[in-house]
Design brief:
The complex is a heterodimer of chains A (about 200) and B (about 375).
Chain A (H helix, E strand, L loop, with lengths): L7 H11 L6 H13 L2 H17 L1 E2 L6 E2 L5 H4 L4 E8 L2 H9 L5 E5 L18 H6 L7 E4 L5 H14 L5 E4 L15 H9 L2 E2 L1
Parallel strand pairs in A: 3-4, 3-5, 5-6
Antiparallel strand pairs in A: 1-2, 6-7
Helix pairs in contact in A: 1-2
Chain B lengths: L4 E10 L2 E7 L4 E5 L6 H13 L8 H4 L6 E10 L2 E13 L2 E8 L2 E3 L11 E4 L1 H4 L6 H15 L3 H21 L5 H44 L6 E6 L12 H22 L10 E6 L2 E2 H4 L2 H23 L4 E5 L7 H11 L5 E5 L14 E7 L2 E3 L2
Parallel strand pairs in B: 3-13, 3-14, 8-12, 12-13
Antiparallel strand pairs in B: 1-2, 1-4, 4-5, 5-6, 6-7, 9-10, 10-11, 14-15
Classes of the chains: A alpha/beta (about 200), B alpha/beta (about 375).
The structure holds zinc ion.
């Protein structure tokens, strides 16, 4: 008896979806079925959105955050407090901090954390441009908002030690209960409190 | 008296169980069957719910029934606040990547530390019987397994420590000796994580050992008619007598220094040679070191005394006796030690024994005092 499988084109779609983070074979199948049943223009719209985002998006030449322009809206905004820089691991983390409504300073996105296991050292992160931003004497405080796992802690400590000779205040978010957590999963109220109660390191 | 009782357990796709539901006796459960039928798997399921992992130290991939992509366990247990549910589902997402969902009374829990120790267990295996003479790793496991359940934060410190250790070891393997200043800067930030988390681990182990020492002396005396004295001593990076008196901040400072001092040798060997991941404790019997000078009988009695002390300790701290899981170990004990174990624990701790047959003293138990289960190829008879 011949077993029934999906046609090769569908199998290919499923295989492509399985490569996405957090998507296993079952979810990939469900997504594929959804996409195949979606209206033609919706499916085309998704494909187009992916291509557009990939084509337009780039890293802000100042802070490293993702942007459609040369400089991101935050770095362009003259209302922001340019004496404070909040250092985060991922672009999404900026959005989390923004949502608290408690922060008016600038950002710096590292695009990861130190992790020798994954071959990520200081030179693989967006650290050199941060050190450059700190040279002009304008910045008075750097807030480390990296994740609270050992990698995030090690990264914050590494940067703090690099910054120390510059005589700039370095502080760490004083998380309430979310020890060992990702910034992304910390709720806004906790993070808001953390921003107010940051500790000097 | 506060109690802890496992009333029933549901297993789906766990090891060789496809679907099983078991109700347990509140006092003693005898799980019989030939080898490789699933006796230990049943104990492993119970312990998984209390430790958040397998006591056989295997990943979820190994725990799933062959060909299935998930397993599910649910315990119905009673403690002083009434009857509760504890469940875990583990779903395979990708190769070696599993998504686990813990639920406490049907409410999802985000971290294992929220559930560890709710269904407190003490597992006793033939390996534990070798506790006195086996490798330091077995003794560390003995302390850590108990600590994870007694103190909900311990899991996190242990995990952070392991993670930081892996990172430092990986860094040591990648080091380029031409850039040694930069290398030290990078090593230092991992050492800081090791020292911060390691200090708590050492402090907690010291506290635990201190209590075990007190209780163990009494139990050892009871088991040996006062002929044998038991004493335990923690061994760490530094072998100072004042180790029990020092505070975590001081332990962290000493650890930090030990990692710095250890760098040259660590770089040569490309691994972290010192720290709580290498610590141990010495077991003295009548003031001589048990692993070298005690007879096999003495070593086994000391191992039994330590396990019984662990049970008493939980009772002293938490106000109830944990579940006692005896995996193929009861028949390994001689008649006197079996009798002592039952005399001390029966009616206090709920006991689960796996064996190939009903051994001597169990035959004299009253039928309402125990429940017999026969396991055959992943099926439970008598449930
Ligand atoms: Zn920018």
């Amino acid at each position: 008896m011949a077993l029934y499988f999906y046609p090769p084109s569908v199998e290919e779609l499923i295989a492509a979806l399985t490569k996405l983070p957090g998507v296993g074979p079952k979810t990939a199948q469900r997504l594929a079925m959804h996409l195949l049943h979606a209206r033609e223009e919706d499916a085309a719209g998704l494909a187009e959105a992916i291509l557009q985002a990939r084509e337009r998006v780039r890293r802000c030449h100042i802070c490293g955050n993702l942007t459609d322009e040369e400089t991101c809206p935050v770095c362009q905004d003259e209302q922001r407090d340019t004496t404070t820089i909040c250092v985060v691991e991922q672009p999404g983390d900026c959005i989390v901090v923004e949502k608290t409504g408690q922060y008016q300073g600038l950002y710096h996105v590292l695009h990861g954390a130190l992790s020798p296991m994954e071959g990520i050292g200081p030179n693989d992160l967006n650290m050199a441009s941060l050190m450059q931003r700190l040279q002009n004497g304008n910045v008075q405080e750097v807030i480390m908002a990296t994740n609270t796992g050992v990698e995030g802690e090690a990264t914050a400590l590494y940067l703090a030690r690099q910054i120390k000779p510059l005589n700039i205040k370095v502080s760490r978010l004083a998380y309430g209960v979310a020890v060992g957590g990702d910034l992304e999963y910390t709720d806004e109220a906790t993070l808001g409190r953390a921003l107010q109660g940051r500790l000097s390191i | 008296m506060a109690i802890l009782r496992l009333n029933s357990l549901i297993m789906r796709n766990f090891r060789n169980y496809k679907e099983a539901e078991v109700s347990f006796n509140p006092r003693l459960n005898l799980i019989l069957g030939d080898n490789a039928q699933g006796k230990t798997n049943l104990l492993e399921a119970i312990a998984y719910l209390s430790l958040g992992s397998s006591f056989r130290e295997q990943g979820d991939d190994k725990l799933r029934r062959q060909g299935e992509d998930f397993f599910f366990l649910r315990a119905n247990y009673s403690n002083k606040s009434g009857s509760h549910l504890l469940s875990v589902g583990s779903q395979s997402v990708k190769a070696a990547h599993n998504r686990r969902l813990w639920k406490r009374d049907e409410n999802p829990c985000r971290k294992v530390s929220e559930i560890a120790g709710l269904l407190h267990t003490v597992v006793f295996t033939p390996e534990d019987l070798q506790l006195v003479k086996s490798s330091p790793e077995v003794r560390r496991k003995f302390l850590d397994r108990e600590m994870v359940q007694l103190y909900s934060g311990y899991y996190l410190y242990l995990n952070n420590y392991r993670r930081a250790l892996q990172q430092r070891n990986n860094l040591l393997k990648q080091l380029d000796y031409s850039a040694s200043v930069q290398a030290d800067e990078q090593l230092a930030v991992w050492e800081e994580q090791l020292a911060e988390n390691g200090a708590v681990i050492i402090k907690k182990r010291l506290d635990l050992l201190h209590l075990l020492n007190e209780i163990g002396q009494k139990i050892q005396a009871e088991l040996t008619d006062c002929r044998e004295q038991l004493r335990l001593q923690y061994l760490s990076v530094w072998s100072a007598a004042d180790i029990e008196k020092i505070e975590p901040a001081e332990i962290a400072a000493r650890l930090r220094q030990a990692y710095v001092d250890g760098r040259p040798e660590d770089k040569r060997r490309r691994t972290t040679l010192l720290g709580p991941h290498r610590d141990d404790f010495r077991i003295y019997i009548n003031e001589t070191e048990g692993r070298y000078y005690a007879s096999q009988g003495q070593q086994r009695t000391a191992a039994l005394a330590l396990k019984l002390s662990e049970l008493e300790l939980v009772w002293q701290i938490s106000g109830y006796y944990p579940l006692l899981l005896l995996d193929d170990v009861f028949s390994e004990l001689d008649k006197n030690r079996r009798r002592e174990l039952l005399r001390l624990m029966l009616g206090k701790a709920q006991i689960f024994i796996t064996a190939t047959e009903v051994a001597g003293e169990l035959q004299s138990l009253r039928s309402e005092d125990y429940q017999l289960f026969e396991i055959e190829n992943g099926c439970i008879l008598g449930a």
